[in-house]
């Protein structure tokens, strides 16, 4: 039985068929918290713990940070990931229940996500690459504001943005740091990215832009010696960058599983009406 894809047409390369019998096919991972580790022990006692190479699905226990770490850990392995909340926020997680887990997994709906590729050049000329599932963010390193030139699809769109930073977020990441920086929430399947300034000083009224998912973004750091900037792809940080290039990485696709009554598209929609 294959979970139904939300937010776009089914992609056979992104979804893995779940067997009718999941006995010995579930791999459990947990955050470092005591609550998550104890939950993992109980679930392993009930269902066993499959080696990753034999697993059909991964169950992640913790909060949104644990889900993000699990996604990075299993990048490229084409394993759907089902999260259960044993953390604080749990926007990306399902409700924690120990009963009926195999049935929940087989009836789950899938959200297919495309990560961003960050390619940076630092002060020494070294090139660094990393993937981001939520966002790529640029942040000032000192008390002085950053000055950043914005280039989209090879064309200069803003000669100089004076700010604390700027980020590019995926739809899945649009409810995270992007939302805290007053960026837009993007429903899955819209093939859009959010570009959101962080505490923009000049131009003061610029609130960012929505970009097509096919866009190629480059940020060039101005007065970099005086105003150093760090670039962060989720939790991979590169300091003293001079140029940062961002685009969707079509070599990799991630699949997250959600209970049918509380899928990620519904959560993203509901978040827009939260006061």
| Major β-sheet strand ordering | 1-5-18-4-3-2
Taking all Cα atoms into account, the compactness measure Rg is 20 Å
Major β-sheet annotation: 6 strands, mixed
Number of helices: 5
Q: Report the span from N to C terminus.
A: 38 Å
The CATH topology name of the largest domain reads Tumour Suppressor Smad4
Q: Report the sheet-strand fraction.
A: 35-45%
Number of strands: 18
Keywords:
single chain, 275 residues, alpha+beta, Rossmann fold, Tumour Suppressor Smad4, 2 domains, 6-stranded mixed beta sheet, 6-stranded antiparallel beta sheet, 5 helices, 18 strands, elongated, disordered N terminus, nucleotide-binding, NAD/diacylglycerol_kinase_sf, cytoplasm
Polypeptide structure, described:
By secondary structure, the protein is an alpha+beta fold. It has 2 domains: 129 residues, Probable inorganic polyphosphate/atp-NAD kinase, domain 1 (Rossmann fold); 133 residues, Probable inorganic polyphosphate/atp-NAD kinase, domain 2 (Tumour Suppressor Smad4), CATH 2.60.200.30. Helix content is 16%, strand content 37%. The protein is built from 5 helices and 18 strands. The strands form 3 sheets. A 6-stranded mixed beta sheet has the order 1-5-18-4-3-2, sandwiched between helices. Strands 7-6-17-14-9-10 form a 6-stranded antiparallel beta sheet, with no helix packed on it. The chain is elongated.
SSE layout and pairings?
Blueprint: E1 5-6, E2 26-30, H1 34-47, E3 57-62, H2 64-73, E4 81-85, H3 101-107, E5 109-113, E6 116-122, E7 127-132, E8 135-140, E9 146-152, E10 155-163, E11 165-169, H4 177-180, E12 192-198, E13 209-212, E14 217-222, E15 229-233, E16 236-238, E17 241-248, E18 254-258, H5 264-271
Parallel strand pairs: 1-5, 2-3, 3-4, 4-18
Antiparallel strand pairs: 5-18, 6-7, 6-17, 8-11, 8-15, 9-10, 9-14, 11-12, 12-13, 14-17, 15-16
